[in-house]
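Hi there. Long-time user, first ticket. I'm pasting a complex I've been working with (about 400 residues overall). I'd like to know whether the download I got is complete or cut off, because the file seemed smaller than I expected. Thanks.
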Amino acid sequence: MGDSVRFYFDFSSPYSYFAAQKIDATLEACGRNCTWHPFLLGALFKITGSAPLTTIPIKGDYCRHDWERMGKMMNVAWTLPDPFPIPTQAAARAFYWLDDQDPDLAKRFALAAFDTYFGRGRDITAAEAVAELAAGLGADGDALLTALGDDALKQRLKDETAQAIDAGVFGAPFFIVDGEHFWGNDRLWMIKRWIKGQAA
Amino acid sequence: MGDSVRFYFDFSSPYSYFAAQKIDATLEACGRNCTWHPFLLGALFKITGSAPLTTIPIKGDYCRHDWERMGKMMNVAWTLPDPFPIPTQAAARAFYWLDDQDPDLAKRFALAAFDTYFGRGRDITAAEAVAELAAGLGADGDALLTALGDDALKQRLKDETAQAIDAGVFGAPFFIVDGEHFWGNDRLWMIKRWIKGQAA
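Hi, the file is complete. Here it is re-exported in full:
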């Protein structure tokens, strides 16, 4: 396995949800690892002047239909949750708290959080909902709930978001492979081709 | 061959250029025809408040790099022309004038215009440049040059652009397959999957 590829996402991004289902398998097939980096898309939107897809006329309706279609084609459960989008601070902070202990556990948590929100349509805004999810995977839910209120963990997510923006991330999902940037769930094929081309 | 699929594009859209290289072959493999419909992306941008990709901070730089990468991966010539973007009224009007005589000739003209602009970086704004291209393919260049100044042909492009917008087109390239909408060069795989799913 070579150096890791960075997968940037927001827990409230539908196309990130779809990408999360297959990014690790896609990269493993290329002999590469992947590290996951949740960040706050809302903080990025403030800088770029972007807005959640569902709020954009015409394109918003297209995306609603596209997500349903993508779920069916990928054979992945899909629900447009209400509320959508949501603040994802608690889920993202929990991810980093878990990641420091066990990166595999953090990924399992991320997939469970995505499935709860987009697969079953249940809100994951609250710290309690996030801690319960982590506890269900074997983590210490009470310790996580305490940590979610700590300034250190809040700062960690701010730093990760700032680093993503500094690295050139302008949407989600976003991938950085040895400095090469790829934007969108539609580009997993290109990441594969690019890695194989570099190895050749 | 079933009913035709509609391919909407603008002659100044890089991702339309890439899609034009393979849309017909992709659909023929599914037993479907494709009709081509150039329209004015600028007229759409006025409604949606969008802007040419190269003018958007960060994303613009990403796209410049992505077009180069796409050209290499598709083995298609790529140059970011200067000026870019350009007014594409002459090319689009010429397309419809040719399309009324011979749809295959119109497609060959479209591919030649794309290649001139994005493959070789030569401006195709002027009516004279467009007429010369068409003449090189066997069309009556003088008659086309006269037609390009006619109100009827100008109105034709206005109508085609209005019809595209009415149909829900919000970017380019855009595809409508039996009422199903697909946006972007990245979605040819999905069009294929969708057609096969409907046929099954």
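A couple of notes from our side: The longest helix of chain A spans residues 103-119. The mean pLDDT of chain A is 95.
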